[in-house]
Amino acid sequence: MEDKINAIIARVERELPKAVQASDVAAISASATGPNGDLTALMKLIPTLDKSERPAAGKLINAAKRKIEPMILAAYAEIENRKMAAALGEKPDISLPNIDAQRGTLHPLTLTIRKICGIFKKAGFTVAEAGDLETEWFCFDALNTPADHPARDAQDTLFMPRETKVANISKHGDELYLLRSHTSSVQIRAMLKEGAPIRIVAPGRAFRRDTVDATHSANFHQIECLYIDKNVRLTDLKAVLDYLFKSLFGNSAKTRLRPSFFPFTEPSFEVDFMTENLGKLSNKWIEIMGCGMVDPNVLKNVGLDPEIWSGYAFGLGVERVAMLVHSIDDIRHFYANDVRFLKQFQNR
């Protein structure tokens, strides 16, 4: 009995790999375990055996069925896989580039920063950077901002707890850490490191406790510009502003300065510009940024003699420029990660 069972199992193992269609597997299954199969025929012989041999014979036949059934299922699966592979065709070479993959693009704010930095590089400026985390002295005191200035209020600026410790951000004294509210702090670190003359642009992220709406964001980007040398005049500032806005908006762009106040510049100005091809804003004066001649106290704070050195500085909002260049009406689009919005800058 045992030899006959083993022979049936061996036959099934031998014939299944040769099966080409599901009907072939079904025929093999029927010949082994079906109603008229070999194992069924052996099962019918059990009553003819000695009573002591019957339990063992039944166990052997059942064990054989349990062994054959998974083999049958595996054979069906193999045939199905072969059919599917044939339908799919030749296996692709996954090392080849995917010609159907969508091409990505740089973020519009990155494109705007690179464009502005490229404009200033042509004028001899270099790019300077520092961390988003800053200290109170570099962000305010060194920039001639008094202790009672509204920008230093906790309602406007994101201060870190007093116990905060940061190994890679140097302090001037025992001041607090904060998320910088402007990139003007970069000019302080650059002047302390390089001295004068110096000509830099400092792009980066800034943070303020603003309520987010169509024109405000608690997180935004600025580009700070600083030029320190001997005999730098207000006319040099006006000239570089004209150069910047003509490069951004075309030769029709004009700029004008309106007197204002900033702690770190004296005299200080608000900058308006006008240009064509801005839709409803065409040929209208638009307030765009603040600027001025570097305050003598700022020069003293970094060890420069204001009797020898002078310079100008201004800060430009990147989102503001990008919104004007691309006619974007809501600053929140820059941070929504909406692919429909970002795809529009694929070829810019």
Walk me through the structure.
This protein is an alpha+beta fold. It has two domains: 2-88; 108-345, 2-Layer Sandwich (BirA Bifunctional Protein, domain 2), CATH 3.30.930.10. It is 38% helix and 19% strand. The chain has eleven helices and nine strands. The strands form two sheets. A seven-stranded mixed sheet has the order 1-4-5-9-8-7-6. A hairpin with a 2-residue loop joins β6 (254-262) and β7 (265-274). α5 crosses α10.
Can you give keywords for this protein?
single chain, 348 residues, alpha+beta, BirA Bifunctional Protein, domain 2, seven-stranded mixed sheet, two-stranded antiparallel ribbon, 9 strands, elongated
Concise description?
With about 350 residues, the chain is α+β, with helices and mostly antiparallel strands.
Summarize the biggest pleated sheet: 7 strands, mixed
Please compute the radius of gyration using only Cα atoms. Answer: 39 Å
Mind telling me the CATH class of the largest domain? Alpha Beta
Proportion of residues in helical segments: 25-40%
Number of strands: 9
CATH topology of the largest domain: BirA Bifunctional Protein, domain 2
What is the terminal separation in angstroms?
A: 82 Å
Average of pLDDT = 90
The sequence of SSEs as H and E is HHHHHEEHEHEEHEEEHEHH
The fraction of residues assigned to DSSP E strands is 15-25%
Sequence of strands across the biggest β-sheet = 1-4-5-9-8-7-6
Number of domains: 2
Count of runs of 4 or more consecutive helical residues: 11
Shape: elongated
Report low-confidence residues grouped into runs of 5 or more.
Answer: none
**CATH architectural arrangement of the largest domain:** 2-Layer Sandwich
CATH superfamily of the largest domain: Bira Bifunctional Protein, Domain 2
Secondary-structure-based class equals: alpha+beta
